[in-house]
Amino acid sequence: MSVGVVRETTEGERRVALVPKVVSTLVSKGVDVVVESGAGLGALIPDELYVDAGARIGDPYSADVVVKVAAPTDDEVSRLRSGQTLIGFLNPRNERNQIPALKSAGVQAFAVEAIPRISRAQAMDALSSQANVAGYKSVIVAADESTRFFPMLTTAAGTVKPATVLVLGVGVAGLQALATAKRLGARTTGYDVRPEVAEQVRSVGAQWLDLGIDAAGEGGYARELTADERAKQQQALEDAIKGFDVVITTALVPGRPAPRLVTAAAVEGMKPGSVVVDLAGETGGNCELTEPGKTVVVHDVTIASPLNLPATMPEHASELYAKNLYALIDLMLGEDGAITPDFSDEVLAASCVTREEGTA
User: Fold this and answer.
1) Is 120 a residue of the active site?
2) Do residues 171 and 196 lie in contact, with contact meaning Cβ atoms separated by under 8 Å?
3) Where does the Alanine dehydrogenase/pyridine nucleotide transhydrogenase NAD(H)-binding domain start and stop, copy by copy (predicted)?
4) pLDDT digit string (tens) for 51-81?
5) In a domain, 142, yes or no
6) Is 117 annotated in the active site?
7) Which of 64, 79, 183, 221 is an active site residue?
8) How many distinct structural domains can be found in the chain?
9) In this structure, how many other beta carbons lie within 10 angstroms of the beta carbon of residue 102?
């Protein structure tokens, strides 16, 4: 069985699907790994390190299994052949995805973002591993844009109070943002429409902002709020946001536009020099004034909406993602060393978005 590692062509994408350490593990299992020349350069991994790990440099589309980070382009789909397996972020909930084209090409495809968030699948959970990176980097972005120190400082010139940071949406990215802001010395608070995560917020040393709304949904995600709940949340958040120096938003609802949590009025009420970092820009943003992919200043408040933050930390993001892919590939490897996915396994059944004809 062979695995091909593609050089990413999406603008700004610096991650690579497999790193040399994981390649060597696959090779030790008898897997032939083919790496496209320059695939690791964005993550500062030269071809030589892949060769040292046992891979060969060549055409990744000649392999039985092709692994990627970003969803394939039209050109990349055209290079795939019937009977191959593709693994990567495939945007299955985006209506403009390539899944129909992959199905027409006879490609068996697994979308890593569709892996169920269950205990047994944690090692394969690429959404969580990359959200950790995004949550960490969001705080670095906020600290860089802020006009204020994060920690309390006691100096000969006087004492500086710590910055106050509010994180809206405390999934994996939000919890990492809270933990990172706490390490930088900020006074942290978390909010989510799922009240059961309050203990997780407190576990990273943050306070819990209780607005009295419960919108727990399936699969660890929040459900969409009713109109009355949205109105109640909006007013309560608007009042609360004005008291924070930094607001980081991470709230997403699968398959839907990002919920609007930070209104223009809330931004106007924040102190001059405050910062909003919106991690939901790719689905419209949580802030009413967000311009996805840009940093703007409105009412003397900086609103940053960086896209694909994990790609800005390609070394560790690639390392984590590669481990996720290895765990998924290992689950599909049969005793004969070939890819033989067992679709009675809920992880494989949920993540497979196109299936070979005749498979159960």
Assistant:
1) no
2) no
3) 143-305
4) 999 999 999 999 999 999 999 999 999 999 9
5) yes
6) yes
7) 221
8) 2
9) 21
